[in-house]
Design brief:
The protein is mainly α. The chain has 19 helices and no strands.
Amino acid sequence: MALSTSYKQIIGISIPIMLGSAAQQVITLSDSVFLFHYSTIDFATIGIVSVFYLMIVAIAYGFSKGGQIIIARRTGEGDRKEISRSFYNLVYFELFLAVIVFFFLRYATEYVFDWFIESPDILSGSVKYIKIRAFGVPFSFVGVAIIAFLTGVARTRFIIYDTIVLLVVNVVLNYLLIFGKWGFPEMGIEGAALASAIAEVVAFSVFILYFIFSKVPRKIGMIALPKFDFENLKQILSLSIPIVSQSVVSLGGWFLFFSFIEKYLGPRDLAVSNLVRNVYLLLIIPSWGFSSGLNTMVSHFIGNRKRMAVVPMIFKTAKLNLVFTLIFAVPVLLFPGFFLYPLFGGDNMSLITEAQPSFYVLFLILCLYSISIIYFNGMVGVGATIYGLKVQFIGSAAYLIVVYILLSQGIGNLEMAWGSEMIYWGIMQIMCFYYLNTKRWHNLDI
């Protein structure tokens, strides 16, 4: 597929990825909505344990992002053999990684949670959830590799269909297993975990059917499984490891943020923060799509030796992302009672009311985030992943230090804690903008 820097092309590539890239966020939102109507404790629990699980999945996603960038670069160069080799080596590695993660989630997370969670009820629920959710890990990890391939070759439409299947299965099973409907056992948070794991298995099966019957893999010569190629994998890992580290630092910071809320402000503010986080995840779906699409387009253009088009394309994508984000964010955050009632309403609207001041803060965060995240992913797309890790580390450290001081010393409230995130995105924007305008990235090669 020939790519251009037009707004139409950017939107066409990015919109399908908005759903595919947000698959785990969609599952988290579904789990949270049903648990909100089941139990306040389970709702607070899913807030902290889902962040931890997203941090684990981000490891797989980071490796797949490195594979995606390389696949896009080879697509721009027209090297079909290397596209196939890179994809299958990514799959082999994701499977190996999934085995390690599965055993970690099943047998070690209880000791990790014990370090960060004060409430016995939240600790118990977190352990129950993660041990069941672990069974979906192998299917989820290979799934992100397939999404990396489809995104890298700019064939993203099928991602929409697969994500719809994922969402439908998860929603139906959440209803049946959390509340015990139609003869199914009432499992609460364990039912949410089982529903999510089964949904990941079904979504993976749909992807396999696509690979069997679609013409796209055959056109690239991806029917026969190639031998494991360590040199090719080294290339993927050299690009991916800093991306993985970035994701762990970023989501690890969010996990610490929620543990600070639980420790210093208590379960009620943790539940409010979970509501704010779910709205946050919903409103950044455009950013996930534009960011991943930009990774592909930047790498593709560099493969085509069109480096001068990169910075203007990043600027165009940032403008589009800001507009799309505000279209969704303004009505939801200004009138949360109206828009959130179908999901988080009911007889008690107090949680939405308590979250209103934090929603105003979230609006300011999104204005800064929607620009910063695009420049950051544009920088990652050119291959500057080591510098990206430095950016993430500096921003996260500054942000978490401020949050810790505010909460541990009793001088800040929930809104001030959330507002501290603007420090993180401000640092990221300044450092990424500076780097891209130095043109040092012109000498990078992957």
